[in-house]
Amino acid sequence: MSFFQKNTSLFARLGYFISFVILLLLSLIGVEFFVGNGDGIWFDYDLRLIGFRLVAWAVSFVVLYLLIRNGPPLLQNVLLSLVSVLLVIYGVEVVVGWIHDASQKSTTSSLPQYAGPAYDSSYAFDEFLGRKPIPNHTFWWTKTLKGKPVVQIGMKADSFSRRITPFADSTHPKRDKYALFFGCSFTYGDAVKDNETIPYYFQKENADYQAYNYAFFGYSPRHALARLQHEDLTKQVSQKQGIAIYTYIEDHVNRAIPSAGWIGMYDGYFPDLDESTMKTTGVYRFVHPIKYRFGMMIFKSKVRQHFAMDFPFGYRPKDYELTANLIKASQEEYKKQFKNDNFYVVVYPDLLKKDSPMIGLLKERGLKVLDYRKLFPFPSKQYQLSYDSHPTPEAHRLLMEQLTKDLKKVGGVSGMTN
Fold first, then answer.
1. Which of 187, 309, 317 is nearest to 259 (CA)?
2. How far is Cα 17 from Cα 57, in angstroms, rounded to an integer?
3. Is 338 exposed, middle or buried (0-12, 13-18, 19+ CB in 10 A)?
4. Ordered DSSP codes for 138-158
5. Alpha helices in 215-339 (DSSP H)
6. Are 300 and 373 in a shared domain?
7. Residue 414 domain flag
8. Which range of residues forms the domain containing residue 24?
9. What is the chain's mean pLDDT, rounded?
């Protein structure tokens, strides 16, 4: 007992705490090894990670205390100011969190509480894309009310993780052209059936084309570029001639940057980009762990959620430039693979971007741009799903009907101009 009485210094107490944490976690890990599967995770809690964090925080607090108490005056003042600022930020976050949670409860209490869809069951990990549709899999897009499905839609993916585009007329004898579609959930067809997507309606309007859907939930220009840089799509497409279409919405700028909101929404699982070479180099959360952690902190902030803020706070000229450069790089990669320049950017109707410079930037880079912003109002009740914020099948149909007309005006893909 005399040993513990003599060793009562701060460092000794820190050592006792660390030893206690290690012994406790070793005991829990030992129990989990015999009663669980031996992976160190018990009831979804990673015991090793918890132990590391406890020790790391304890050491950090002790070091901070010693520096404030015994450090030079300048360092003491800096650290005290920093701690004060952090405490104020934390206090504001807590208070705004209470207000936000209360307002959310009052807003939703009188509305039907729908659950789903469970997007986590729709994708698999990919070393360059971050996430991709599970190959040869049907994802059931389901919304439930009081535990019962109210909307249930099957979304089928093929062996190349492309959403299957069924033929409107399976008896057509010859489809000798391809149409590659890149984009986000608008193109993939969030909340609509396989025969209600953008690629489907294009294929229905153009019987000599076979459409291939390379889009997915939450995709961005980064994903289109990564797919073209790391996959040989000519080996996935049987036709030798055709076109590629990238469907653009203004939110793709968020994803190109990426903004803190988008880092959080996609949990950092999207392609990283070397802007100097325009090469995709892996998955963002693993290449930039510090930026990823910082982005997640902002994303989870109650202040950000309550005031609907993001970081950066608005689109900067360089953000638009980066987005345009990404789409241009995708066009160049497409041209390398398919040996033609039939790459078009379709600008989806979107009332939120009247002053966007994107169309001008794309045209400056020599891209073929089809501006459909005024084709129909979106978002609007007429063209927005009642059970989701995405476009209706009718909106997709109208868009592809207009695209078909524009292609026919110039005699097909070879003569299309921007």
1. 309
2. 11
3. buried
4. EEEEEEEETTEEEEEEEEEE-
5. 221-230, 252-256, 260-265, 284-287, 289-300, 302-306, 317-338
6. yes
7. no
8. 2-108
9. 88
Are the C-beta atoms of residues 227 and 233 closer than 8 Å to each other? Answer: yes
What's the number of domains the chain is made of? 2
CATH of the domain at 317: 3.40.50.1110
Residue 279 makes CB contacts below 8 A (sequence gap 6+) with 229, 273
333 and 270 together in one domain: yes
Q: What is the pLDDT of residues 92-151, one digit of tens each?
A: 888 888 887 787 776 655 556 778 899 999 999 999 999 999 999 999 999 988 778 889
Q: What is the pTM of this model?
A: 0.84
pLDDT of residue 108: 59
In 197-240 the beta strands, taken as DSSP E runs, fall at 209-213
Alpha-carbon Rg for the chain in angstroms: 27
Structure tokens at 226: 């990564």
Residue 310: other Cβ atoms inside 10 A:
17
Whether residues 166 and 67 share a domain: the answer is: no
